[in-house]
Amino acid sequence: xxxxxxxxxxxxxxxxxxxxxxxxxxxxxxxxxxxxxxxxxxxxxxxxxxxxxxxxxxxxxxxxxxxxxxxxxxxxxxxxxxxxxxxxxxxxxxxxxxxxxxxxxxxxxxxxxxxxxxxxxxxxxxxxxxxxxxxxxxxxxxxxxxxxxxxxxxxxxxxxxxxxxxxxxxxxxxxxxxxxxxxxxxxxxxxxxxxxxxxxxxxxxxxxxxxxxxxxxxxxxxxxxxxxxxxxxxxxxxxxxxxxxxxxxxxxxxxxxxx
Length: 259
Description:
Layout: H1 4-20, H2 28-34, H3 40-64, H4 70-93, H5 102-119, H6 121-134, H7 136-161, H8 167-176, H9 183-207, H10 213-233, H11 240-258
Helix pairs in contact: 1-10, 2-3, 2-11, 3-9, 3-10, 4-7, 4-9, 5-8, 5-11, 6-7, 6-8, 7-8, 7-9, 8-9
């Protein structure tokens, strides 16, 4: 049985993810917490698989357009997947970590960081371009290790809160690859990195029986066709104004979650 409100929430998130690569966790998790009153652990577990499946559909479209930077994706995976696996082991061995009271607070904090990251992304990009052009040898030497380290941070955030793979990942890529990441390449690369990360992080919650399959099905009914539309719209629509609007919405959502 399809739950229409969940399907509408999935469609809204799907369009945003398709356009910007952002929102699978940063937008959906606060929606589940604030508007539907879902338990934080269930929201995280379900959203991880929602994000993985939804982004898989969008990534196929972007990959077909040849926009994925596979070298950058592999560097991110080198940091994010091992870190996510560590959290998976902890979740699989016991539920104590994911049942702690600070989990909701952690989600709110990461959402706020995500919002500020999106809002100030242009300034970070300008700073990164200045450093890239001014000191190219040092910048290029540090790129691989910083990408792996950043991937590790993303893996920890996503595995614990389901938030960060898209929004924080895109900010990280803009800063580390300011001349290399065109808007379309950024969205495609960010999407492809997020899919196995969400799946790996979601395995522990899956085996712990924390995924709400009925809710997930309703969310996907809305998100799958919506992300297809959003992914094709990236070729004709600029996602910059959507990023600013999303940042403001996430800022309000983060404050509400913390309150």
